[in-house]
Amino acid sequence: MTHHQDDPNHEDEDRTTPSAREGKDADVVHLDVARAGRQPQRPDADRQDSDDRTADGPVLGGEAVRVDRPGPTGGDWRTALEAKARSRQPIVPLWLRSRTEAVETLKWVALHYLHVAGYQVVRLPLYGGRLTARAPRGLLRLVGGVVKWTFDLEGEPVRLAAVQKADPEVYLKLSRQRDSRVRLRVLISSAALVTLLVVCLMMAEQATTAQWAALAVAVAALGILGKPADRPLIDRAVVPSTVEKLTSDIVVRALTVLGIGGINQAMAKNPKDAIRFVAPITRDGPGWRADIDLPYGVTVADVMDKRDRMASALRRPLGCIWPEGDSSVHEGRLILWVGDKDLSKTVVKSPLVKAASHDVFKGIPFGCDPRGRAIVVPVIEQNILIGSQPGQGKTASVRVLASAVALDPSAELWIHELKGTGDLDPHEQNCHRYVSGIEDEAIAYAADSLALLRKEVMRRAASLKALPADLCPDKKVTRQIADRRSLGLHPLVAVFDECQNLFAHPDFGAKAGEDAEFVIKLGRALGVVLVLATQRPDKDSLPTGISANVTIRFCLRVAGQLENDMILGTSAYKNGIRATVFQPKVDAGIGYLLGATPMPKVVRTAYLDTPATQRIAKRAHALRASAGLLGGHALGETPEHVTPTFDLLADILAVVPPSEAKVWNEVIVDRLAELRPEIYGAWAGLEGGAKTAQLTTALKPYGIKTIQVWGTSEGGGKGANRIGVARDDITTAITHRDRGQAS
Ligand SMILES: Nc1ncnc2c1ncn2[C@@H]1O[C@H](COP(=O)(O)OP(=O)(O)OP(=O)(O)O)[C@@H](O)[C@H]1O
């Protein structure tokens, strides 16, 4: 391919040699002159030009430069080295790097061979019986073979053929050869027979055990000789299909049946090279790992979508197939991990069950990835958001986090379990603030907590600023600072389980959302950590300011892309991080973890049942009590009330006089904000539509419906039809409520 570079002389040349375009009377002198005038000139320019002319026809003007040039690319050697560095094979194999993984692999190998050995030892009598049964046939075969060899019986058919053809010359030749051969072989066979007899005589004088041993060896040898061609002596200890070795053929077969256009086209064009294996398929933890480059244009997300089909193609349960991308290399790099065991059937034990104490600065042992590697979730300077459909293991994962925090006496624990089932009750004894419930009082308590946290963050910011530089060079909370309790900068972990009940609450939701966002944005460096769990990740139940700012996300099974991206962040679904692949119920406790590890990971959380959690909580309580670090709720203190109680309906009546029968929502909200800025201020700050909707939602629980109201703006102007409330509806609702309360 040639490419004409822009050249200032190009036009001139065209103008001076018009006939050249027709190919007649071409005036080469003009061109050369023009070229000679071109500065600077490459040393090989002339050769190049003449090459171009001969290869691609006449070049009328400008310099022809090949787009695809022959020879080496001449790239920077450092860049090449850097590219190579990215695909370096580890010096220490991956499985040896982590202690748990090395132990797991060695355990797997040891168990495998122990099983094989045990299986065969148990069957030794069977094998002995088989050998004995086969020994007579072996003896016959041995005798027959020796006789055949000694008397050269293989040659018999040829000699007979010579006789039948009546060819004396050939017959004589064959007979002579046979005689000499048989003479030698008879000698050898006789010697062997005599040796055997001598051995037998010698054995007769030996102890009986030696005689039995010799007999056993002889029987075994004869038994092996007598083996039928189609029946093996030894049974296989491991039926191959149970943990079938993953081979490249199997992987290619599995990828080609997924029905992905890009793979099929590439396979049709070049079946040998379409799917490349960048490293040998190896054992990695309790399973096989294949590192694959997918065909050009195919992404890991395409494969991820067809995980179930892949499971069928690999003949494994779905819970064994874990394709993973490595986008640090490129979007088509697939790490296919095929486990021996179904992840959904593995129960991950938590090290917290036995731990005497825990240091939250070292992170929290959260669970395992499919390869059995322990996953630690950092909490300091982080905020954690957990989401899923109901019953997929949210509370169970919160339990693990809360238990680890409880075991660190220096950390303050606040728990708000807004479902009211008491799943986190065991830790009540360790909490500075604790509530379990779904009713308004519990929600108000949780809202109070967020308001208090907001204050606490501001207090901590000032304290941290005032610390001398030598004590706190990075202006961050460290273990050393956390241990100085008097500074009040110890880790404070506040858990809000089923937080949608708080954020979507008509009265407390908006303010709580704002406070949470504030704490998430500023509390990180100050040791204040929020752990939020929700089963309804939509924009009303989880303010976008929160979902956009959390640093660690854990998403168990969700139904669709929207929920997936609310928890895991925008574009997560598009990038192939899809918590929709997990199966409802079956995969409870399995989710995608983002932000805790360099790459997003599938994680099975450790499971702590209620008795285990109770034991941990008791241990943590003793630890805290002995360190004198119990406080607040754990000591039975009643908290100060921060969020003022208010009555929305009474407040509306207060701002809408009887003279106004119907008023627009937005007007009511503005008046409410004037009445109680600390409560309704956030509502008034919303944009027009959202402001109206806020009041509509807040009135819904009272059974009050908004209506179209004709009116004019308070500042005057044109009349308009907008959403509003009838004052009578409010008074009726109050009457109903009062009657209900009285009864
Ligand atoms: N890591 C795990 N290992 C094994 N089983 C688990 C795990 N996590 C959860 N489960 C199972 O899933 C069930 C539901 O878990 P959990 O109560 O935590 O779900 P949830 O998402 O909080 O539910 P809801 O939304 O109804 O509150 C548990 O009772 C348990 O049997």
From TrEMBL:
<dbReference type="GO" id="GO:0005524">
    <property type="term" value="F:ATP binding"/>
</dbReference>
<keyword id="KW-1133">Transmembrane helix</keyword>
<dbReference type="InterPro" id="IPR002543">
    <property type="entry name" value="FtsK_dom"/>
</dbReference>
<protein>
    <submittedName>
        <fullName>DNA segregation ATPase FtsK/SpoIIIE, S-DNA-T family</fullName>
    </submittedName>
</protein>
<keyword id="KW-0067">ATP-binding</keyword>
<dbReference type="InterPro" id="IPR050206">
    <property type="entry name" value="FtsK/SpoIIIE/SftA"/>
</dbReference>
<keyword id="KW-0812">Transmembrane</keyword>
<keyword id="KW-0547">Nucleotide-binding</keyword>
<dbReference type="InterPro" id="IPR027417">
    <property type="entry name" value="P-loop_NTPase"/>
</dbReference>
<keyword id="KW-0472">Membrane</keyword>
<feature type="binding site">
    <location>
        <begin position="388"/>
        <end position="395"/>
    </location>
    <ligand>
        <name>ATP</name>
    </ligand>
</feature>
<feature type="region of interest" description="Disordered">
    <location>
        <begin position="1"/>
        <end position="75"/>
    </location>
</feature>
<feature type="transmembrane region" description="Helical">
    <location>
        <begin position="182"/>
        <end position="204"/>
    </location>
</feature>
<feature type="domain" description="FtsK">
    <location>
        <begin position="372"/>
        <end position="565"/>
    </location>
</feature>
<dbReference type="GO" id="GO:0003677">
    <property type="term" value="F:DNA binding"/>
</dbReference>
<feature type="compositionally biased region" description="Basic and acidic residues">
    <location>
        <begin position="1"/>
        <end position="55"/>
    </location>
</feature>
